[in-house]
Predict the 3D structure of the following.
Amino acid sequence: MTEEFLLRLILASLLGGVIGLERQIRAKEAGVRTHILIGIGSAMFMIVSKYGFYDVIEHSHIGLDPSRIAAQVVTGVGFLGAGNILVQKQTIRGLTTAADVWVTAAIGLVIGSGMYEVGIIGTIMALIVLEFFRQLTYRFLNRHLQLRMRIAAGTAQVVLAWLTEQGYRIQLRSLANDTSDCHVLTANVEYTEATSVNQILSSLKENPAIEEVSVV
């Protein structure tokens, strides 16, 4: 039985890590380590909830609800999710990351209960939503992008002014040091229907101040 419990913990950590890897690639708040820990913790709580009290329930005068600990995980993970939601300049950030933290906890609970197929399929579905629907939304449903640009140090104002001149509406999200020679700039870009995502990325790459650009 111990070997099966260990298998569940390993599988929960792997599935959580896969979702966390997607979030970290997109430079989101909760990354690989956070999601692995959520997966492991949820699986452990589920194992304890189902199997941790066998020595107690053997007594005829004791009755326990095996779902009580799992239910508390659902409530408790909400605090982790809420910690990823930020409001900056009337813009809400982190809702998707908060939701995938919640889903990762659910995957950990499912794996901890021994429902391996459900957990694996749930992970695949979560990745499809996070990646495929992100591309679908950006290309067909709205005209907003969140871009991450690696720029030469001291050129942030120049780059933002240049983007405005190109006809884009820009909202700066963050500006951080990468190295002594480079900064990482994250911004929301609103563009017109006549412009495609590929055209935006191509034009940005032609700017000598921008060393690297990606959609996050």
About this structure: Strands lie at 86-88, 91-93, 144-152, 169-177, 182-190, 210-215. The mean pLDDT is 81. The chain has eight helices and six strands.
